[in-house]
């Protein structure tokens, strides 16, 4: 973690598929990194969301393991979307972090 970053939780670089649901729309993308507090996802080509949008992210860890977490879009960059997880989902987030331990970024 960069010393200039002000994060509560360390990030884990991973690469897996995800579906971001914004209102009634779904956007397929990939997860680039993950922490107890949120995730950085690739910005979908037709992304219609803005910062402060409420979303649900379905993390597709494998064919049998899909974990959904609700959150708030806190950053929209040129190529990524940053989502902060909503409070009160600790059990789901812990399960997500446990399952994601096997997902490493491919060099």
Automatic annotation (TrEMBL):
GO molecular function, one term: cyclic-di-GMP binding
Stretches assigned to the PilZ domain: 5-98
Pfam families: PilZ
SUPFAM superfamilies: PilZ domain-like (SSF141371)
Name the record gives this protein: PilZ domain-containing protein
Organism field: Ahniella affigens
């Amino acid at each position: 973690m960069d010393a200039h970053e002000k994060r509560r939780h360390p990030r884990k670089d991973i690469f897996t598929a995800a579906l971001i649901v914004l209102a009634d729309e779904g956007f397929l993308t990939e997860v680039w990194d993950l922490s107890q507090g949120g995730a950085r996802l690739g910005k979908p080509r037709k992304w219609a969301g803005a910062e402060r949008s409420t979303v649900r992210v379905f993390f597709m860890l494998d064919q049998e393991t899909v974990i959904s977490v609700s959150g708030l879009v806190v950053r929209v960059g040129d190529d990524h979307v940053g989502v902060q997880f909503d409070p009160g989902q600790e059990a789901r987030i812990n399960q997500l972090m446990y399952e994601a331990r096997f997902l490493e970024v491919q060099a």
